[in-house]
Design a protein that fits this description.
single chain, TIM Barrel, four-stranded mixed sheet, 15 helices, globular
């Protein structure tokens, strides 16, 4: 196999197979992979824009029965700092987010056995009655848990939540979609097939989602490739994924611990994901786990989006990692990479485009 010929064929539109992905991951030069991924990105987005969103992550509870080994956020019901958010706190967080320009809420939390679907219906209806904001919330494990806890099917759960105001699902809880990995890092969480089934059912009722991956815990390249194959296959079937978002495991303050994945391997995987996921429009770079400069570099390795400025984020922070960004800094970070900064909404519609002098 010759890398130059491979890249030429892929750039001409031939779909990359798994053997080629594995070969390029092992053998191809990092900058060569990045260049090819950037060419694909430029073709999809000839305006040279790089987008971001303003949203707020709100954790409605930290009580969780799942006990994932990589998580430093969850608490048991009897812990002194365990909580379920109250309405006044929730609304105060939303109002603050709106003042900062937020257009999206990511409301997520632990698998709390005291919370049935009525809790979420009341929460979403209350938000929609008061605020003009998109609810991009609840992961596939949460949906499955709510369904079981409320004696409902996944489809019934999604339809009821959609009627209450849930607009779309984030891809959290995927980790790596290979049960050899999941059985070790999150043995009590849903299996790969169940995660994919929640996404399929959401797409079937017209609810868009994102696909995510947390790599670098105990997973190997073949596990990550299996994950990409599964989400590409589902995207072929439904077309319901808006974006792919990959970040790296953070080995701090949790049971799993381990070592942090190198930024160079992250960038190489990101670039190959852009080439392999030919049916995904948007690939997001992760400055939250990689830091601002690697996040900026991701724009040269296939990423067209840098996600949120993160008004509030608690799960990664619980692992001991804190990177902060404000709107002006995000605009300058993108502009300094030679790209056109653009503010977007959940549906990737552009709300504002900035030059380097805008704030």
């Amino acid at each position: 196999m010759e890398t130059r010929q491979l890249f030429s064929e892929i750039l001409d539109g031939r779909r990359m197979n798994e053997e080629e992905f594995a070969y390029l991951y092992q053998k191809a030069d990092l900058l060569e992979v990045g260049k090819a991924a950037d060419q694909v990105r430029q073709r999809r987005f000839p305006d040279n824009s790089a987008t971001f969103i303003i949203d707020r992550n709100i954790n409605y509870t930290n009580i969780c029965s799942c006990g994932c080994k990589f998580c430093a956020f969850y608490r048991k019901p009897e812990d002194t700092d365990a909580y379920v958010i109250d309405t006044n706190t929730l609304y105060a967080k939303i109002e603050e987010a709106l003042q900062l320009g937020a257009t999206q809420l990511m409301i997520q939390g632990g698998l709390n056995e005291s919370l049935t679907i009525e809790f979420f219906e009341q929460m979403f209806r209350g938000i929609k009655a008061r605020y003009d904001i998109t609810i991009h919330s609840l992961t596939a494990p949460e949906i499955t848990f709510i369904a079981r806890n409320s004696n409902l099917t996944v489809r019934e759960t999604l339809l009821r939540l959609q009627a209450a105001g849930l607009d779309s699902l984030p891809g959290g809880g995927a980790e790596v979609l290979h049960d050899e990995v999941r059985s070790q890092i999150s043995p009590n969480k849903i299996k790969s097939r169940e995660w994919l089934d929640v996404m399929r059912k959401a797409h079937e009722i017209g609810m868009k989602t994102t696909a995510t991956m947390m790599m670098g815990s105990i997973d190997r390249p073949e596990h990550r490739l299996h994950h990409l194959r599964e989400i590409r296959k589902l995207q072929d079937e439904t077309g319901g994924f808006r974006a792919f978002i990959v970040w790296t495991y953070q080995p701090g303050h949790n049971e799993l611990m381990g070592n942090k994945m190198s930024s160079l391997l992250y960038l190489k995987f990101l670039a190959l994901a852009r080439l392999y996921l030919d049916n995904f429009d948007h690939i997001q770079g992760s400055w939250v786990t990689q830091g601002k400069r690697i996040g900026q570099l991701s724009l040269f390795f296939g990423a067209d989006d840098l996600g949120s400025i993160m008004i509030e984020e608690n799960v990664v922070r619980s692992a001991g990692l804190v990177y902060k960004m404000d709107k002006k800094e995000m605009i300058n970070l993108i502009a300094d990479a030679g790209r056109v900064p653009a503010l977007r909404d959940t549906e990737y519609r552009l709300l504002d485009v900035y030059n380097s002098n805008n704030d």
